[in-house]
Amino acid sequence: MECGVGLNLKMDCLLVKEWNPKLYSVWYVKFGSSSTEIVSKMGNPIRRAVTSSGWHLRRTNETMRLIITTFVGIIFGFVLGVNLSSNIFPSVDLTYIEDKYSGLSTEALLNVWSALKGRRRFSCKYNNTKIWVPSNPRGAERLPPGILVADSDLYTRRLWGVPGEDLIVKPRYLMTFTVGYDQKDNIDAAVKKLSENFQVLLFHYDGRPSEWDEFEWSKRAIHVSVRKQTKWWYAKRFLHPDIVAPYDYIFIWDEDLGVENFNPEEYIKLVRKHGLDISQPGLSPNSGMTWEMTRRREDTEVHKDAEERPGWCTDPHQPPCAAFVEIMAPVFSRNAWRCVWHMIQNDLVHGWGLDFALRKCVEPAHEKIGVVDAQWIVHQTVPSLGNQGQEEEGKAPWEGVRERCKNEWTMFQDRWIEAEKVYFEAMGIDPPNSTIRY
């Protein structure tokens, strides 16, 4: 065959025809053991090809080049993305954020950003990054314990500056009054006796809180206004133990108390001295009163028991002969209030019957509950809240209020007795005779 002339080939030739409008030619492909050539019919080389083994190597190299190029592209894209995120987010004006949300510092924001970047790197290795802490407060199990703030306070704060510099003095005691504007002079006299250690909170049952601005101290006080509600209604809703946790003592007082002979700081000293968790100032003899236990004595600083009328006390360590104060002017330690708050019923707003149950919150009650004689007050018995009632069936407003007070006392006793019964039966114990009823 012509393509094999002068060549040492062991393979046949492949004839390839190519049509050209201007020239017809025949090309031959020559195969050899060491090379392959494409020649024209005249024997002139047209293109030299690689060896057959080289052809396979070239295909392999191209494949590897494609793989390497793809891999390099992925790495480049990842590095580019990291650089972009590092360049873009740190450029956010953290000072602006801090100014807008004064509770956040630049340092805190940078710490959060660093934590988020660290978490992103960590998540590349591990997927189990969800937080669940069963010991956290209910509903907060998904939060890291270090961020939890389980309680609060009633400290008022400014809207500018550094949060840590908001409070020059942190009040240690909380004084609350349930008030109507008509008793403003009484309240003004009481508040003026308070030192900077006291935080003042007024509960307004007549809807007139703005009128108290005539007093300079009122501008620093906290005002809560809901019409025609009692102090125990307010206390249950606004004095949760976790809200008043910073205060050593909580005063929950009526509005009709004369304080000419009362010094709050001295009162606190005596309460601490005698270890009282629940207390009240003694009542002057000319006060309207029901119980001997709360009458002021002139020969002692504090008393914790009393001689009541015959038959009133079956046990000298139980109310009303001991472990007893009235609900007009009680003072609670932080720990005692945490218990008492849970005892207050949502619907029994007058609190009648609480005074006989307070002893359940301290032990021994006849030692932890007492009356401070050296600091005493006058109960003026102004029936201001009674006038907030409504006339029904020919009864005056105050008559309807008084009737509900008595009914609530009975209802509270019944609930307590039933709760004790259910508890003891669940424990497999014969229920004792309840001592809550009077």
Automatic annotation (TrEMBL):
Keywords: Membrane, Transmembrane, Transmembrane helix
InterPro entries associated with the record: DUF707
Pfam families named in the record: DUF707 (PF05212)
Keyword field contains Transmembrane: yes
Transmembrane segments: 66-84
Entry superkingdom: Eukaryota
Protein name per its UniProtKB record: Lysine ketoglutarate reductase trans-splicing protein
